[in-house]
Specification:
The protein has nine helices and eight strands. It is α+β, with helices and mostly antiparallel strands. The strands form two sheets. A five-stranded antiparallel β-sheet has the order 1-6-3-8-2. The longest helix has 18 residues.
């Protein structure tokens, strides 16, 4: 679905955009069925929990069409292309199956991070930043309120981090998350089939889950076809890969 000017202005300001009902219910149902079947057949090895949380549950399903179709055959893809540019996003062949299980412990507040930073369990090589262009999340379960494992975002943090990296250089992220005074976080609610488009550089995190249910979501990382050649520059010029945003950028800079 082509984004309109109001949506692009909102995305520019906040760094994220909700896409209600972007994925057909039948695709959502098929993905959840496959995930639940995997959990029932294979279970979860406790020794792998840290890796699954950081990388993906049900790793054998990550590249299956039942997962990738949530992005590739829904309106989410055309929405992302309208902001980046048609034909300028690399093919996406896998998704992160992100489950958030209920907790019986007191919930801790979420903390912002930017994807692609090294941790011992996320497969990012130490001393590197595996950045990309956009993060897309697809909701597979009802999230009607806060503290249900919600994706949590810090509106406008993409612009603040851009200035931080302009001042200190993008490699400063190797030293840890920028120490920047951010706006209050927003825990995103949603229904199955809703999606969210996030700029790579948006600070985000995951809230705890005090509900009785598992939170199901799939995350996709999108990269511009030229990303590898300009991946550092994109951290100090965060719209470098977003040709579809040019009209909004021109208006903002006028």
């Amino acid at each position: 679905m082509e984004l309109n000017s109001a949506q692009k202005r909102s995305f520019y300001r906040d760094g994220f955009l909700r896409l209600p009902g972007a994925v057909p219910q039948e695709l959502v149902d098929e993905a959840r069925r496959a995930i639940n079947a995997s959990l029932g057949d294979r279970g979860i090895d406790p020794a792998q929990l840290t890796t699954f949380r950081a990388q993906s549950y049900c790793p054998e399903l990550q590249s299956a069409s039942i997962i990738t179709d949530l992005l590739n055959t829904s309106s989410v893809w055309s929405s992302a292309e309208s902001a980046i540019a048609p034909g300028q996003i690399r093919p996406v062949t896998s998704g992160q199956i992100a489950l958030r299980f209920p907790s019986t412990e007191p919930l801790r507040p979420p903390h912002p991070h930017i994807d692609g930073m090294y941790t011992p369990s996320n497969s990012v090589p130490k001393g590197t930043i595996s950045n990309f262009t956009a993060l897309v999340g697809v909701v597979l379960s009802d999230i009607p309120r806060a503290d249900m494992g919600n994706l949590t975002v810090w509106p406008g943090s993409h612009l603040q981090y851009e200035q931080y990296f302009r001042d200190r250089g993008p490699q400063a992220l190797l030293e840890g998350m920028p120490n920047v005074a951010l706006l209050e976080p927003v825990q995103l609610t949603g229904e199955p089939g809703d999606a969210v488009l996030c700029h790579y550089q948006l600070g985000h995190g995951i809230a705890g889950n005090s509900s009785p249910d598992i939170r199901y979501a799939i995350y996709f990382r999108l990269s511009h076809v030229d990303h590898d050649a300009i991946h550092w520059e994109c951290m100090t010029d965060i719209w470098r890969e977003w040709a579809g945003m040019r009209d909004v950028l021109s208006a903002q800079r006028a």
